[in-house]
Amino acid sequence: MRVVHAASEAVPFAKTGGLADVAGALPKALAAQGVQTSLFIPCHRSARRALGPARQAVRLPVPLGGATVECAVLRAGEGAVDVYLVDYPAFFDRPGLYGEDGKDYPDNAERFAFFARAVVEACRALSLAPDVLHCHDWQTGLIPAYLSTLYRDDLALARARTVFTIHNLAYQGVFPKETMAVTGLPAAEFSPELLEYWGKLSYLKAGLVYADLITTVSETYAREIQTAEFGCGLDGLLRKRTADLHGVRNGLDLELWDPSRDESLPKPYGAADRALSRGSAASGSVGAAFEVGPGKAAAKAALQEALGLERRPDAFLVGSVTRLDAQKGVDLALAAVEPLLARGAQYVLLGSGDPALERAAEAFAARHPGAVRVTRGFDDGLARRIYAACDAFLMPSRFEPCGLGQLIAMRYGTVPVATRTGGLADTVPPYGFLAQRVDAASVAAALAEAAAAFSDARVWSKRRAGCMGLDWGWVPAARRMRELYDLLGVRVVGRR
Ligand code: ADP
């Protein structure tokens, strides 16, 4: 089976959030399951830097808005997955992936119509003959629409069925209806049953309408998005497609996220610490020396030192690593943390995004100079040191398709405190703490419960060991995805 993935970001080439983790890891996990897998991403500026030696696979003329644009498709070095980068500097050689300073690039409609069309054209030019074209989020939503219309009878794509994965329904890629001309899609497709969303063109809806199969990244989110509360205006369509909609929970790349091999940390820990804490728990005597395995304790001390916080091993150190967006409930996090600060807790936040939330977080830090540090920006190394150093990871999302932050935290022995929504509801129990409702009082109650548990070394050590003992690897998700691909069967040309 040949599967082509298309995504707008993927580790290690370009990343703004969890989509990149998934687009980097899922294709690898599928390849390990024997699926012949390729991945297309745009050649963003960061990707070009990460790329190293690459060779041009093909030069490609891509139709865009009545003209033809010529781009190159680069092929990244060898690996289990063939990674192709669509290189068109005018669109992708930019500091940001989707925008800068909290503002979207004004030509995102053109950029991602182009990318979608380029992926389809590259599949033909490179004779990839995919059985499945697997598209991720709105940036690739037009691909299923192209396959169902302009390329419906194209023999080079004759076998291709399409899968569309929703990583976040809140980002929809909605553009003025004049964008139809940019896409080159037949005008007749602009109707409320198809591409139109309240008078505009929705790239996300294109994916949801035309794909043969839809997945999303956790079972709870798959149910939630079929309700008015979480459906972002598309719940009706998703209910209509309920038979084709599956929740497949994301995994974590256990090689990339591994405290026993993480070079960003002062001292590796993991397997050995894990064995120690398991052994202690089994014998019923959790020794103080193992309470915070030596590597984890070193990470905590180093972070406190680096950020200028008092170096106290007994301080309840809470952390968040996040996009600063209303979704992530940073306002709830700050409100929940505040009462604990007077009792000696510390809070570190790394995030970037909405300038108003950045200012709010920095103002909060300024009010609590002895106990709170906010770092604005996107910093993989600091993120890793925070995951490792903290006792608890605070993630009070208002909605959360899957969430990787809480999985990484658990892998690093940091107990998550989160809200009962989406993938958080599916993964945080039984060792983490869940706020029953998405409001400041409930999040504060969950965090206070965590703080109380932390004050009992024995209780905390069991929680931490429980978190670290869980296997968040990709194998189950890749197996399930493979089953879903198999269910799609072979396509009969001309019958989408
Ligand atoms: P989302 O995809 O909604 O942003 P996830 O929890 O699924 O949230 O994934 C977030 C990913 O991005 C994680 O790998 C997290 O460590 C990373 N991340 C988020 N913000 C930052 C940041 N400011 N610096 C470094 N990594 C970050």
Describe this protein's structure.
- With 496 residues, the chain is α/β, with parallel strands linked by helices.
- The chain has two domains: 2-251 and 475-490, Glycogen Phosphorylase B (Rossmann fold, 3-Layer(aba) Sandwich), CATH 3.40.50.2000; 277-469, Rossmann fold.
- Helices cover 39% and strands 20% of the residues.
- The chain is built from 19 helices and 20 strands.
- The strands form four sheets. It has a nine-stranded mixed beta sheet with strand order 3-4-5-2-1-8-9-13-14, sandwiched between helices. A six-stranded parallel beta sheet has the order 17-16-15-18-19-20, sandwiched between helices.
- Strand 8, helix 5 and strand 9 (161-166) form a beta-alpha-beta unit.
- The longest helix is centred in the first third of the chain and has 18 residues, at 108-125.
- The radius of gyration is 23 Å and the shape is globular.
- Residues 272-292 have low confidence and may be disordered.
- Residues 17-19, 21, 321-323, 350-352, 378-380, 383, 402-405, 408 line the site of adenosine-5'-diphosphate.
